[in-house]
Structure prediction request, 377 residues.
Amino acid sequence: MKLGYLVADKSKVSILEISLCFVLFFFLLIRGTYRGVLLPIMLFALPHLLLYAYALINRNIGRDTFNKLIFVSFCIFYIGIKLYRGMDCIGHEGDRDDALYQSVKHFLNGEYPYKEFTFLHHVIHTGPSSVLLSLPFVKLFNSIQVVSAAAILFLVTYLWRYAEKISKVPILSLALTVMIMTPFSNFNFWESGEELLYGLPFLYLAVIMFFSKRIKQDFIKDMLIGIFLGISLLVRMTYAFPGVVILCFVLFNKGIKNFIFTLISLIVTILIICFPFAVMDHKHFISHILVTWFAADVSFIGQNVLFFAAFIVLMYYYTISKWPLKNQVHILIGVSLFIGYIATGYISLPWHVLYWAIPFMITFPYLYSKRGKDLCH
Prediction:
């Protein structure tokens, strides 16, 4: 049986897909974790469930129409309400949103943020890129929700407008079902713990630049790839794994000159982002953030990086080296991020599921299809 028919009719919403939504909603109801915030999360999940109920009743609804409906529903009930209320919608069970907000507020006041504490008395260790990305929105709107909402909106759009077109597998609706109906990823979204998710849009923007046909000048594309990789790297060092993959594709497909220019752009971006924090307290920033925290984040330093490199090389040459280039890039990014979360220990934290699940969802259609249509323009 072909996978396309197992998951869904290519143009219709399958019974299997509808059943998955109802089963996950049932497990959402009986899940004991985060019981105090279960009711609001359940209420926000209801519109998604009702759309699947409608698809069960109206078996003639087309895939394109259904995708538009669930996308609009997600934008209203998740993106819209998040922008309006943020974590206040479900209570204050965590402090990652407060860590980002407090770090930006201290930075705006000219204070070094990495010696301060959240309301739960945890030391702030938000990535420098996350602080600077959130800065204008805290300044203008006194809110960190805009960047986190924009990050998830970009990724959902990427799933739909790029990844789903590769294989026609209903990756958008399946991804939203998993995100909305899974307690850990759902709560993580509302908690604004997306300081890790901030890196994913810039990672995939680097991929778009790599394949871009609209930008004719190679040096501009290489510069933008380096900038996007530098931003993602200073969100969390876990992004070093897929960053190495993209740099390797630049080296082997564009040449040493393009690789060096991309690398220089990446290094300059890192220096620019780090500069204001180093000026405030260079000793603490270098020793506790760049060395201690970031080095702890990348526990692959040493023999693990050799294992990682060997695994990627073997996987490439023995499995996907003959596949279209777009498939190769997306598959290796998904694999490298997954390995990164294993190496850094994040894979054992269930509330981090959203961070490695989204790249896996994006990777899935590229594994399924070898057609490799030109989608990134």
In short: Residues 256-297 form the longest helix (42 residues). Residues 1-8, 299-303, 372-377 have pLDDT under 50 and may be disordered. The chain is about 70% helix and 0% strand. The CA atoms of residues 127 and 248 lie 25 Å apart.
